[in-house]
Amino acid sequence: MPAGEFRHPSPPPPPPGSEEEERWVWAQIKAEARRDAEAEPALASYLYSTILSHSSLERSLSFHLGNKLCSSTLLSTLLYDLFLNIFSTDATLRSATVADLRAARFRDPACVSFSHCLLNYKGFLACQAHRVAHKLWTQSRRPLALALQSRISDVFSVDIHPAAKIGKGILFDHATGVVVGETAVIGNNVSILHHVTLGGTGKSGGDRHPKIGDGVLIGAGATILGNIKIGDGAKIGAGSVVLIDVPPRTTAILILCSVILLLNRALTILFGV
Amino acid sequence: MPAGEFRHPSPPPPPPGSEEEERWVWAQIKAEARRDAEAEPALASYLYSTILSHSSLERSLSFHLGNKLCSSTLLSTLLYDLFLNIFSTDATLRSATVADLRAARFRDPACVSFSHCLLNYKGFLACQAHRVAHKLWTQSRRPLALALQSRISDVFSVDIHPAAKIGKGILFDHATGVVVGETAVIGNNVSILHHVTLGGTGKSGGDRHPKIGDGVLIGAGATILGNIKIGDGAKIGAGSVVLIDVPPRTTAILILCSVILLLNRALTILFGV
Amino acid sequence: MPAGEFRHPSPPPPPPGSEEEERWVWAQIKAEARRDAEAEPALASYLYSTILSHSSLERSLSFHLGNKLCSSTLLSTLLYDLFLNIFSTDATLRSATVADLRAARFRDPACVSFSHCLLNYKGFLACQAHRVAHKLWTQSRRPLALALQSRISDVFSVDIHPAAKIGKGILFDHATGVVVGETAVIGNNVSILHHVTLGGTGKSGGDRHPKIGDGVLIGAGATILGNIKIGDGAKIGAGSVVLIDVPPRTTAILILCSVILLLNRALTILFGV
Amino acid sequence: MPAGEFRHPSPPPPPPGSEEEERWVWAQIKAEARRDAEAEPALASYLYSTILSHSSLERSLSFHLGNKLCSSTLLSTLLYDLFLNIFSTDATLRSATVADLRAARFRDPACVSFSHCLLNYKGFLACQAHRVAHKLWTQSRRPLALALQSRISDVFSVDIHPAAKIGKGILFDHATGVVVGETAVIGNNVSILHHVTLGGTGKSGGDRHPKIGDGVLIGAGATILGNIKIGDGAKIGAGSVVLIDVPPRTTAILILCSVILLLNRALTILFGV
Amino acid sequence: MPAGEFRHPSPPPPPPGSEEEERWVWAQIKAEARRDAEAEPALASYLYSTILSHSSLERSLSFHLGNKLCSSTLLSTLLYDLFLNIFSTDATLRSATVADLRAARFRDPACVSFSHCLLNYKGFLACQAHRVAHKLWTQSRRPLALALQSRISDVFSVDIHPAAKIGKGILFDHATGVVVGETAVIGNNVSILHHVTLGGTGKSGGDRHPKIGDGVLIGAGATILGNIKIGDGAKIGAGSVVLIDVPPRTTAILILCSVILLLNRALTILFGV
Amino acid sequence: MPAGEFRHPSPPPPPPGSEEEERWVWAQIKAEARRDAEAEPALASYLYSTILSHSSLERSLSFHLGNKLCSSTLLSTLLYDLFLNIFSTDATLRSATVADLRAARFRDPACVSFSHCLLNYKGFLACQAHRVAHKLWTQSRRPLALALQSRISDVFSVDIHPAAKIGKGILFDHATGVVVGETAVIGNNVSILHHVTLGGTGKSGGDRHPKIGDGVLIGAGATILGNIKIGDGAKIGAGSVVLIDVPPRTTAILILCSVILLLNRALTILFGV
Sign of the CA dihedral B79, B85, B88, B91? Predict the structure, then answer.
């Protein structure tokens, strides 16, 4: 069996959200990392420092995020401490992390294992760091929340305002260029591709960003603007610009990008920079 | 009052561009940082090293940019020295910095303070670093200017050719993915969202990029290609592809993205990667 | 002659792909770096460490990539060793590198020299690192290949699945936000601008990404989805969303983005976030 | 009052070893750091990150040691975690730390404050890190204990075998070059100057290093070899070589270095390297 | 069996200096590291990156030295490359390394395993790095050799002039403060404790440093000055100052430090700084 | 001519202390570095970053010290700024630096060039950093001065109290383990070997450290204790312990280490640790 492939062990996984699931997922991650460390000595040091030397998922995640997001003026120890403290004391965050790992593992065909997501998915990592920033925001620790947002944007090219509310089971796939505004709300089990914007419409303040329902799928490069509702289960096509509400649970979607053009003259000037 | 909020002090700020404004803005920034350091000990070290330990805005900015843009082969001390030397000797750059800080503070509802912009806005930081690269370019120090462009693109995902000319009072909001070509010109008080391209059209050289007038607003993901003019005060919608001139001071804009599609069949294949 | 400009020396360069070409390009790069180091002392240390201290192109490239892609948990020495080992033993990779350098130098008017591309083009660097990740993938060293993909995505904002097959003479221009899926194939002499997606359509696995022919040009922000063919020499306009095959060697292209809108009311809500 | 000077506050400090003392010393340290940060903005960031951002002495010390002793292969987060875990769960170590701070503050005339010792005394820091290494040794975590010893020796030039037993209230003054062997024992309230060796005599194993009583003072460069006893309160002169027991509580000491030489001929060859 | 303890495997080790010995020692080191990584997850990452991910002793050693001796201006990749290149092409150096490992393992009772010495003994590491500096010196690459000497002195507090000639099977125990001058020569199987100086006598140049025979033992803090001979097998006591030849193979030694002093008055002024 | 060797150019150097000397020494250093960079590409990057990219000796020195002494909590840019500011505004410090460079170059036979000393001599570098710490001390910026002392002691194993007064033309040779107390004074043109202590005698404060006259030479490991005078031109033998005044300009010296011992029995126990 090639390294990197993942096979479900015989006993079925615990039900999603149950207490045993967190332990089960962490056990899976350690088993995957152990197998990969054995198969690839060049990666073993990395796998031990990020996963195998830790006693829990929140420690591993806090360590990994601290090292990814630190800078010469925001030290890794400070961030590690901050993340660990918040993940350790908030079971809701930990269960959201597990739901996000499931989302990547079972909804993205390119995701070969839980540890693949934990280590390598910048969308996953940006989302977990956002949850901490959001928690800080709700505690009125805003300068720290904003500093975290800035680091996430520098490192992962994912810019989520710490006030934005995000549900569980989220898949930010590829994630580069995602922008989520201050008053945006994202439901549960949402999949969002790269370059997606949940933006405002230039109003000077107040509630001005989209509300995304449960189970929504938003394609690459879609731009959704204003305080509008994307109903549960809706699908937004890649490259769409959406300015009005989309009804819940419809497969039809609203886009502002269409029509086939075959005008040679006009198109020959479209290329390059 | 929650940390991170900013209230205007009683006396009105000095007129924009006046000599006192630079001192006033710097005094505001220090006051904000002092308040935040007191409220949030975990951030105090960061605020002292980036703002409170410095005697002027250009020193603070040079330090912050040097630490953000350095790498193992381009040391922070070298970059700090370079930035400080250029900001110290060119009052025009300093006044552009102040105008950019005002632009973010007063045009972006999510911007809670001047220090928020100085510390956290990658669009602001990329723009200041570009101004230095542009200055080097005009001094025929091109390899250094290009190295700087490359670091800005790596760190902030903002790719501005050092030859591009950019006015004052610029807001690059979110900024990830912005690309500005070699012969592009951007006027004063322009707002540019993320993923915006001011690109060429594949011609082999010469003047081949857009000229953006004063007060223009360019929405997220807009692509403006070729040596065309976007008139003063024009607004370009999010996701637009613009290939021809847009008249000055019009609210109407030209886009190549439109029409509502409700064809279920076609759209079900638009999602994901 | 201003620093940074490049003049072809009198003798014509060796034929592309010939054995002498690699040596010739490396000699050019060293000559350029030597000239720039002399003209710009502030950059000399950088040029010596990345280019002039090395005895071959693959050593210089391995050093540069190792330093760019390393992190606190994936050390530069480990990556340097990995890159050098693979580039040294695979002449095909080295010849692809040279073809990519030619592509940037002669197809991008903003590229002033080979060393400019080698040092500064994140698209070039991401592509070379991808070739190593792809090689690891074909050797079933998948966890390492995926770790490399993740670092390339973090550092360059370019996300190419290590299984994707990419030809020679590739120009990823600006490159921020490029996403290339697992079963995508890219031919030779292809130019791809920033924000381009070669994505899937949400199918749960299998061959689900585009196949790009030789000599294709894909404009900024184009989104190409599904297991479709873009024929040799085709051109895809900026901002296009492409869902069906494009015939080979046609100048006509298929896009889903069009029509001119001048409705003031609709457009005033399109701006900002 | 000049910065850096320390005045005892009016209420007398709590009795040594009492429960309140730890809190009192920590309060002193924070007050000193706050005063210094105010007087010296260039140092404020350092003082906040090492002292003022922490909620307890053990957190501050763990952070400081983690950053001092880390390397590219032993990350600061790992060490921070290790130190914090051990200091948090072992009150004996914490009380020894406080006793050592008192020892420096009240026995070394050059020590101007508790924070001066905490931040700057490599002898103090090496001793605290040794206590952690010793604890690991007693838990049979020997490879980690030895790795810590090695880092302490690299960073502080203080080489204490993790098996060595060291009491409370220890002052390692200047500390460079101190060597303490595996079976050495050091009592309470001992002062040891730099270049002091508590070494073996070449025997192949077993109990082979000195036992130092309470309140002993060992001068700079003294070399004490073999399983001998230095009695309580004894004083060993600088440069001494001691090979036999020294009686307890005597002011007389045994040395092997003596006699005044005024032979010009012999001494003219003693200088330089 | 407690972690960190080492038991000889049943088959006797290959004869010293034989070709198989290098392989045997490397196999021992890997086995030790594997055992320790299993017993101590916190150290596993370190053990994998420094030992277990490498295919040979010279790769492991070059990696370890490169990371220890690098600085912000002398990068680890450069040093790694330099060390690996020299160790790979010079079998004499490799065999000296193995002999030094044996020396520590079998002559120092505190050395619990080969890997303990390879990872943690700064005297061992300084000596290996010196061998490389010496090789560079003999190749007239003097500035690089001197830069290496400087790094070794900064990092390990061991200052050996690159021109000094050092044999095999050397044990620098503890090592802090060792100084070896330009024209010094050290034979085989020599043990040198910390603070030992092999210095000159102030002459203005030429052959002015000691020549140490085979099997000599020099105690802590001994100072040996001038172009004198210490005969094979001689022993120099701790703290000695030696200015004249010591006959070969004698157990008697010459020192300039002696006599027992019991004068209370004189000695009470000897303590502290 | 082998790299690393230095020949005096034809015109004689300017008189010591003259205004032209500083320029002349800096020109020599640049010429040496240029020659070495050409001969040794592996070192060129280092030589450009530390010497050749700088416009003056004080910039080069400030850069080098900033990079050597920085830590994760005391950033290189902060230290660079501090050093540059003080060296730029105090001509006395700059002239002392030049005198120290001369001292190493002409009094140490192992010193092959001015740049050898500037780059590699930790005694020289520690002394220059001490002068800055001393200046800060006299300005009552004591916490910063003490932090600097601590970094010098960590990095160079040289511990000089910032209050100690040191003249010009000082050679700290090898330097490891040098300790200089708070009230010590060192005259001009003094040479001090490694492990030398200018310490106190345990008194609780006040003027308690040695006063060293001009032109004194102190051998390796000498320990000089108490408020005593070492007269101009005196020589202190290696390993001496000096407790009383030494008359000026005598070649005779006072030591407390003497007599030849040939007692086999006693000495066989002197070895090892």
Answer: negative
C75: nearest CB among E49, E78, E81: E49
Which chains have 3+ CB pairs within 8 A of E? A, B, C, D, F
Residues of E in contact with A52 (CB under 8 A): 41, 44-45
Which stretch of A74-78, B234-238, D61-65, D181-185 has the lowest confidence by average pLDDT?
Answer: B234-238
Query: How many whole angstroms separate alpha carbon B102 and alpha carbon B114?
Result: 8
Q: Please tell me the distance from the alpha carbon of residue D238 to that of residue F226, in angstroms, as a whole number.
A: 12
**Closest chain A C-alpha to F54 CA, distance in angstroms:** 24
Q: Pick the last residue of a domain from A126, A157, A188.
A: A157
Assess contact for D13 and D21: CB atoms under 8 A.
yes
> Cβ–Cβ of E270/D157 closer than 8 Å?
no
Tell whether F144 and F184 lie within a shared domain: no
Q: What order of strands is seen across the sheet that includes strand A191-192?
A: A171-172, A191-192, A217-218, A235-236
Please give the Cα distance from A35 to A17 (Å, whole number): 26
Structural domain span for residue D67: 1-156
pLDDT at B8: 46
pLDDT band at A253 (very low <50, low <70, confident <90, very high): very low
A180 lies in the same domain as A144: no
What would the two tokens of residue B209 be?
A: 């990029």
Tell which wins on pLDDT, A267 or D152: D152
- When pLDDT is averaged across residues F118-127 and rounded to a whole number, the result is 98
Number of domains forming the structure of chain F: 2
Minimum distance, in Å, between the CA of residue D77 and any CA atom of chain A = 5
CATH number at residue F254: 2.160.10.10
Q: Using a CB-CB distance cutoff of 8 angstroms, which residues of chain E are in contact with residue D220?
A: 272-273
Strand intervals (E) in chain E:
159-160, 165-166, 171-172, 179-180, 185-186, 191-192, 197-199, 211-212, 217-218, 223-225, 229-230, 235-236, 241-242
Instruction: Give pLDDT tens digits for C132-155.
Output: 999 999 999 999 999 999 999 999
Instruction: Say if the Cβ atoms of C72 and D75 lie within 8 Å.
Output: yes
Query: Which two structure tokens, joined as six digits, stand for B220?
Result: 């997220």
Indicate if A130 and A6 belong to the same structural domain. yes
Q: Residues 6 or more apart from E52 whose CB is under 8 A from it?
A: A41, A44, A45, E30, E33, E34, E37
Which phi and psi (to 5°) does residue E162 adopt?
-60, -15
Inter-chain touch F73–A75, beta carbons under 8 Å:
yes
Residue B172 has pLDDT above 60, yes or no: yes
Pair D210, D227: CB distance under 8 Å: yes
Model confidence band, residue F23 (pLDDT cutoffs 50, 70, 90): very high
pTM of the model: 0.91
